Recover the amino acids of this structure.
């Protein structure tokens, strides 16, 4: 379908009536409807608030879809603006995420957009025309309508997951509610309180909407989630104001990672499990939301209490504190403005734990978070009164703080665990394992100052993401965790009923492990009882569990899968070999901390600021350039997943993986939008995309590997790549990788080099110590090498090239040789010096001498003849004819029958094929010139040794 | 009746020998390269069974048994059920896939990927590449079938633009994608220097060198086993006779001399096979006519069977054919005039020490010879001489110094002689009815 968005069609926009209201603060007039008339045509289209519209975008065929929330203009009336609620088209959802849908998207399908990365204020002049949007039930089939102008909404999309959407949100042409009595602060309609509200709404906190909240808490989970996420957005912004701390966090990251790698992997896992952060983030939001509408929340909480069964003993405990928890923060007016405080208090709130602790927290500012939280929960538990001594010893401060409640502190979740069904045994185990480790890992930090603690929690978060590469499915679950109340429900309901049906999927087990680890604050028994009464809530959750089958978006080629499973490594050497393979992704990249940090902070700052930039990374092959960038991206992606930084889009192209420099455009476009186009067309589309302001745009991080291959005579590909980031609306970060340090000076013309800028980084070849460290970290306590052997390898490689790949390959080959020689009685089973020496000989020794020794008599004679002729001529070159004369003479000396010219030429050609000789093309016959490819000494040495 | 039976045997013997010499039948057991065999087998087994990616180069001179080694390894590998079910093979040859575009299509075809998305494969080069890379990227170590890439004449792939194919294959082998094993076969010892630094870094630097150094007795043994009939041959009696015959043949002095000459020239078993092939293919032709006669020299005791044997004379004849000089052979077919011109050129070469000459100089030299002899037998017109000169050029016995000299007159175009003096003299000896004065002229030191 073509929309008349062409520039030649001029539209005239004007307000239909007098301003509805006037906002004194912002100096804006608000209107109810807008009239659009196309010049030359008598027809006039009227846009009203609540109507669905099409908004001009990059793609003429697929303009953006949105719903008008508000229409306003500035004081003079020249600037016409609109606040809209966005809908995402299928084409706007990344392909990878589209898989989450679990079905083929309908071409006319759109998604209610809940992401928060885009501005919802648009220029009214970009409105094209109204459009019909219908809400469909989740299960309802798409009508076979031929009407191209009707779009359908089934689900909402928040840049991570799809959810069912309430028809009320989509409802077409809802009568605009011009409550003039309401303060005209930006989102005044009830709609604005819905998840879509952002931009201005973030600054002025959303006006309480009783209906929404009530619905949220009265069992309509979908809705509940929506409101939560709205709150989350607000909180996240508060966070982003404090991006300074975050930056420092990223700085500390590498140091932390070093620590982490020194620790056993087990500890790391534990750390991850105990990471409280995901949750805390949400709680934060919840809190701020609650603060906003104090009254409502009080009511709703009360509702909640009442709905829980009275026979649950723990509830009575937590009930009273809860109310207090409410009032306490409410009383402190400045509370929500202190993010740090929120971070702490939210943790307590999330479990509805005693308020005193919360209050303490807020007043005392930052304290050791994680242990405290555990204690706080314990306080709410009636069962058992034995304290865990370990913890107390570890953090004295905490003891002091909560000592009042401590008296009743139970011995943590162990007892409830034992009561659980057998299937949960695994989780319980994880938990038990976990609890002793937790203090070990965290206590040293707790003694530090508050900023250090905050940072350390962040680090832990980062560590998590290193470990669990978020796969698409788990996103859904993560999302669930964001909403505390629901999460509890979900986990408990799963525990109760779905145990049998639980997939043996490792992922799920892991997930659950995390639940269990983070969950222990709330005793399960309590959850169980509560959930049993509220079973209906659980149903919508089901939809998002990873069980949903993944149907590929489109048929993609793949290598057929194995009929028999791959065998796992059986012994130490095989294990070592697997770990040493270059392809095995290391848990961390040792020796590149500085580079990691530099790239991380560069990209992160660009993403946070929403600007663009270029970076040039150079280094000889095998120094970890690409690996480091990938790791940075993994970390950032995770940071984006947990909403620390705005979401971004990472794409990667490789100069070597394309046939022609101009293919770069095609690949970028395809990875960005999934469109296919010719190189020229793709270049035009990208140009448009990066130079035009689009209201809804994420930062794009583009990795250009093997940059030198993108060189063209006019250098227009490079020029464009470096020019786009400088555009105002591009939000593009370009990371380029090449081998030579002076590439910009050498091959780039000035205007290209200038745009590349001066952000350069150079990866030095690894030193032998670093190489050793790399091997050690990869081996990771698998004892397969003798110390000397490792040192020999790393020294040898460091002296030659500093290429980590070479180093790993040598080690791998050494394990093989060791395995072969293991049968001998003298073998120790470890890779020793002798094995490494053998490999080095194999890989680095030249085979020319052996080749000469193995040559036939006539070939050897011919080589001697060549040398004799060179000596006679005093040149390093002779024609075959000249050499052949010498050859005949030598034959006679040796007592051999002289060979014919043809035979001689054949001999010569055979030597030439091995490249012992360098020859001219053979059609020159006897006239071809002959040169040696080996030094004369080598030849003589090889021949003498016979 | 006897003829009939023998004719049957005859066909069988022929089959067996042809199988060996022409189709490169794999030996049951490799000799001299057990270590290399083990190394390669282990490596490929790990790819097939464990899904470990690897890359390796097999380097050795021509005829050293590189391909045979690989084939033997594959045969042994595929005996294992686990490997057989999993391994996918792609065979490429640098002489056939002369650029990456063709190579990519061939890979796609051999992997049967073209059926997956229909016409997609026949898209542009860029699409092909993206398609294949995507396919390989989809896989992972544990779930997808390992792919074995065999790149014959590996060095030629290194001449492709940017070495795109090699980079990508090696990159896959070094990253967590579908498991692949890249096996390159080349005879160039300096092959690593051909690789671009990025490609080189991604290559695992495993090289298997096939530099066997057989001694002459081993060589002789090889000839014997190649000619002997296997024990499973149906007619035991005949088989015994035949093998005894081969034994005596190999002990024959003249035969050993011939073989020694071959051995000195080259240890290439390909050349050996082609050398033995010609006498071996001769004997069934001889057989029907001479089976009952006693005219066949060496053994005539039992005329029914023994004539089937290879005779030393056949081998000598084959050897003569092998070692004859091709250029000298061509000289036999020239006219006297052309031969005279060649001799004149030889003298010019002697005088001017290999400097190029033109037709006019050759003609002058020829005229000097005619004047000395004062005999008009060889008096030819200038155009005739010109024609003869052009014919020599067509035969590539002489070639112009620079091919761009089309502007100069043909008489003055500088030429070089493509023959060695020994070749000319040899040809003159054998030239039928060569005039004595021409021979003398050729032999004389001065023109």
């Amino acid at each position: 379908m073509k929309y008349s968005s062409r520039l030649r069609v001029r539209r005239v926009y004007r307000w239909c009536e007098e301003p509805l209201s006037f906002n004194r603060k912002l100096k804006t007039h608000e209107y109810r409807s807008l009239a659009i008339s196309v010049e030359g045509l008598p027809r006039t289209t009227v846009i009203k608030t609540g109507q669905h519209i099409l908004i001009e975008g990059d793609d003429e065929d697929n303009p953006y879809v949105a719903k008008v929330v508000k229409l306003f203009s500035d004081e003079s009336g020249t600037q016409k603006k609109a606040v809209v609620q966005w809908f995402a088209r299928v084409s706007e959802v990344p392909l990878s995420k589209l898989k989450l849908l679990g079905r083929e998207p309908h071409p006319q399908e759109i998604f209610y957009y809940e992401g928060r990365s885009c501005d919802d204020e648009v220029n009214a002049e970009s409105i094209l025309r109204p459009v019909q949007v219908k809400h469909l039930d989740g299960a309802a089939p798409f009508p076979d309508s031929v009407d191209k102008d009707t779009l359908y909404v089934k689900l909402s999309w928040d840049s991570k997951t799809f959810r069912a959407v309430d028809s009320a949100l989509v409802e077409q042409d809802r009568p605009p509610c011009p409550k003039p009595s309401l303060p005209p602060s930006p989102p005044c309609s009830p709609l604005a309180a819905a998840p879509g509200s952002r931009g201005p709404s973030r600054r002025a906190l959303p006006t309480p909407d009783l209906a929404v909240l009530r619905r949220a808490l009265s069992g309509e989970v979908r809705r509940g989630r929506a409101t939560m996420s709205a709150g989350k957005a607000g909180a996240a912004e508060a966070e982003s104001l404090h991006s300074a701390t975050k930056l420092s966090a990223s700085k500390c990251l590498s140091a932390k990672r070093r620590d982490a790698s020194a620790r056993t992997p087990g500890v790391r896992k534990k750390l991850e499990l105990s990471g409280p952060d995901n949750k805390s983030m949400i709680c934060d939001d919840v809190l701020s939301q609650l603060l906003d509408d104090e009254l409502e929340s009080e009511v709703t909480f009360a509702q909640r209490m009442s709905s829980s069964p009275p026979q649950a003993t723990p509830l009575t405990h937590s009930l009273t504190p809860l109310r207090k928890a409410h009032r306490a923060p409410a009383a402190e007016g400045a509370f929500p403005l202190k993010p740090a405080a929120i971070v702490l208090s939210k943790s307590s709130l999330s479990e509805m734990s005693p308020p005193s602790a919360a209050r303490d927290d807020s007043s005392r500012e930052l304290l050791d978070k994680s242990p405290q939280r555990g204690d706080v929960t314990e306080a709410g538990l009636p069962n058992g009164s034995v304290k865990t001594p370990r913890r107390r010893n570890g953090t004295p401060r905490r003891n002091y703080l909560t000592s009042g409640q401590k008296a009743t502190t139970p011995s943590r979740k162990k007892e409830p665990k034992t009561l659980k069904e057998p299937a949960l045994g695994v989780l319980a185990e994880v938990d038990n394992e976990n609890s002793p480790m937790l203090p070990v890992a965290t206590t040293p930090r707790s003694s530090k100052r508050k900023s250090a603690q905050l940072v350390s929690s962040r680090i832990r978060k980062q560590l998590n993401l290193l470990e669990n590469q978020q796969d698409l499915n788990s996103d859904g679950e993560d999302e669930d965790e964001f909403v505390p109340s629901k999460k509890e429900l979900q986990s408990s309901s799963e525990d109760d009923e779905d145990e049998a049906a639980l997939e043996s999927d490792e992922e799920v087990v892991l997930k659950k492990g995390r639940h269990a680890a983070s969950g222990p604050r709330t005793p399960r028994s309590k959850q169980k009882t509560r959930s049993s009464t509220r079973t209906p809530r659980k149903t919508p959750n089901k939809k998002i569990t990873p069980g949903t089958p993944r149907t590929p978006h489109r048929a993609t080629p793949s290598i057929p899968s194995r009929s028999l499973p791959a065998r796992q490594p059986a012994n130490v050497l095989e294990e070592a070999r697997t770990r040493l393979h270059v392809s095995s992704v290391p848990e961390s990249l040792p020796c590149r901390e500085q580079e990691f940090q530099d790239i991380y902070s560069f990209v992160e700052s660009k993403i946070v600021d929403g600007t663009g930039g270029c970076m040039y990374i150079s280094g000889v092959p095998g120094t970890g350039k690409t690996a480091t960038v990938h790791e940075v991206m993994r970390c950032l992606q995770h940071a984006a997943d947990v909403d620390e930084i705005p979401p971004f889009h990472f794409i990667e192209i490789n100069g070597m993986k394309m046939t022609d420099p101009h293919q770069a455009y095609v690949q970028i476009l395809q990875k960005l939008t999934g469109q296919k186009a010719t190189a020229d067309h793709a270049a035009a589309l990208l140009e448009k995309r990066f130079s035009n302001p689009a209201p809804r745009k994420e930062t794009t991080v583009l990795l250009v590997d093997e940059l030198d291959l993108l060189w063209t005579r006019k250098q227009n590909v490079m020029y464009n790549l470096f020019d786009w980031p400088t555009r105002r609306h591009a939000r593009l970060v370009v990371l380029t990788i090449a081998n030579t340090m002076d590439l910009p000076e050498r091959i780039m013309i000035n205007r290209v080099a200038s745009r590349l800028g001066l952000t350069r980084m150079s990866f030095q070849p690894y030193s032998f110590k670093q190489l050793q460290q790399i091997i050690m970290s990869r081996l990771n306590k698998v004892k397969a090498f003798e110390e000397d052997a490792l040192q020999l390898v790393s020294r040898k490689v460091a002296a030659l090239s500093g290429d980590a790949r070479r180093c790993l390959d040598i080690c791998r080959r050494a394990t093989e040789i060791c395995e072969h020689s293991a049968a001998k009685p003298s073998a120790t089973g470890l890779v020793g010096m002798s094995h490494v020496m053998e490999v080095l000989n194999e890989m680095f020794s030249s085979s020319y001498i052996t080749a000469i020794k193995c040559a036939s008599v006539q070939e050897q004679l011919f080589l001697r003849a060549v040398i004799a002729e060179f000596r006679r001529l005093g040149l390093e070159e002779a024609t075959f004819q000249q050499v052949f004369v010498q050859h005949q003479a030598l034959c006679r000396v040796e007592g051999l029958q002289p060979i014919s010219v043809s035979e001689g030429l054949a001999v010569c050609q055979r030597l030439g094929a091995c490249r012992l000789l360098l020859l001219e093309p053979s059609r020159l016959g006897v006239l071809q010139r002959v040169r040696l490819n080996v030094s004369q000494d080598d030849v003589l040495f090889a021949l003498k040794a016979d | 009746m006897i003829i009939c039976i023998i004719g049957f045997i005859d066909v069988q013997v022929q089959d067996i020998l042809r199988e060996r010499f022409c189709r490169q039948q794999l030996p049951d057991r490799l000799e001299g390269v057990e270590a290399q065999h083990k190394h390669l087998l282990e490596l490929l087994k790990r790819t097939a069974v464990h899904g470990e990616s690897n890359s390796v180069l097999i380097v050795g001179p021509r005829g050293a048994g590189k391909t045979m080694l690989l084939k033997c390894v594959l045969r042994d590998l595929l005996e294992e059920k686990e490997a057989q079910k999993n391994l996918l093979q792609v065979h490429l040859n640098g002489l056939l896939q002369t650029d990456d575009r063709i190579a990519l299509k061939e890979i796609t075809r051999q992997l049967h990927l073209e059926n997956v998305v229909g016409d997609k494969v026949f898209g542009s080069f860029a699409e092909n590449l993206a398609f294949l890379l995507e396919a390989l990227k989809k896989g992972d170590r544990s779930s997808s079938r390992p792919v074995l890439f065999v790149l014959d004449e590996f060095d030629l792939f290194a001449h492709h633009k940017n070495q795109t194919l090699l980079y990508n294959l090696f990159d896959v082998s070094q990253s967590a994608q579908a498991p692949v094993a890249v096996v390159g076969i080349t005879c160039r010892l300096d092959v690593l220097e051909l690789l671009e630094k990025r490609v080189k870094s991604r290559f695992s630097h495993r090289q298997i060198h096939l530099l066997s150094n057989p001694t002459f007795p081993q060589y002789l043994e090889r000839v014997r086993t190649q000619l002997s009939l296997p024990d499973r041959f149906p007619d035991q009696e005949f088989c015994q006779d035949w093998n005894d015959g081969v034994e005596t043949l190999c002990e024959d002095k003249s035969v050993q001399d011939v073989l020694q000459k071959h051995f000195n020239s080259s240890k290439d078993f390909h050349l050996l096979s082609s050398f033995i092939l010609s006498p071996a293919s001769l004997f069934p032709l001889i057989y029907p006519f001479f089976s009952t006669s006693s005219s066949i020299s060496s053994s005539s005791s039992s005329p029914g069977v023994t004539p089937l044997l290879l005779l030393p004379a056949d081998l000598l004849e084959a050897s003569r054919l092998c070692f004859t000089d091709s250029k000298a052979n061509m000289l036999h077919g020239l006219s006297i005039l052309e031969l005279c011109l060649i001799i004149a050129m030889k003298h010019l070469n002697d005088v001017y020490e290999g400097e190029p000459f033109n037709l006019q100089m050759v003609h002058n030299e020829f005229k000097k010879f005619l004047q000395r002899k004062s005999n008009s037998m060889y008096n030819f017109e200038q155009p005739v001489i010109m024609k003869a000169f052009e014919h020599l050029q067509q035969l590539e016995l002489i070639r112009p110094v620079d091919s761009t000299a089309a502007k100069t007159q043909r008489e003055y175009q500088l030429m070089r002689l493509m023959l060695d003096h020994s070749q000319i003299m040899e040809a003159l000896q054998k030239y039928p009815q060569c005039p004595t004065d021409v021979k003398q002229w050729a032999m004389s030191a001065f023109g």
Observations:
- The first helix of chain A runs from residue 95 to 98.
- Chain A has 41 helices and 22 strands.
- The radius of gyration of chain A is 35 Å.
- The domain at 847-943 of chain A is CATH 1.10.10.10 (Arc Repressor Mutant, subunit A).
